[in-house]
Design brief:
The protein has 134 residues and is α+β, with helices and mostly antiparallel strands. The chain is 31% helix and 35% strand. It has a 6-stranded mixed β-sheet with strand order 5-1-2-3-4-6. Strand 3 and strand 4 form a beta hairpin. It is elongated and about 75 Å long.
């Protein structure tokens, strides 16, 4: 094996299928076609994979250019094991609806948490006022 420093080591991975995890949480899967010294990537036949629970859906994106600073993880996909997954593939519409429901549930839980903290803060302030009046 030839070990090259930095992004030069990725030259050996050109034309192989890769999974890319982005800083914003999106997951892309595609063939690595080009890379530069800043780790900017060009992916071909790219799909955006959305996971919700034990289901996933792939949204075709085509050619995708990714700025290197947005890459969190880059890994080669083993083509022999790719189809051997415990996850169930569903339609784009179904996975987008499930993602929307999951995001709504998270938002509601976050609102409840914020409200509980506000209520607790009011209780502490009330107790401090009572303690200072004694």
């Amino acid at each position: 094996m030839n070990y090259m420093p930095g992004t030069a080591s990725l030259i050996e991975d050109i034309d192989k299928k890769h999974l890319v995890l982005l800083r914003d949480g999106r997951t892309l899967i595609g063939f690595l076609r080009s890379i530069d010294q800043f780790a900017n990537l060009v992916l071909h036949q790219t799909v955006e994979r959305i996971h919700v629970g034990k289901k996933y859906g792939d949204i075709p994106r085509g050619i995708f250019v990714v700025r290197g600073e947005n890459v969190v993880l880059l890994g080669e996909i083993d083509l022999e094991k790719e189809s051997d997954t415990p996850l169930q593939q569903v339609s784009i519409e179904e996975i987008l609806e499930e993602q929307r429901v999951e995001q709504q549930t998270r938002l509601e839980a976050e609102k409840l948490k914020v409200q509980a903290l506000k209520d607790r803060e009011k209780e502490v302030q009330t107790e401090e006022v009572r303690g200072s009046q004694s």
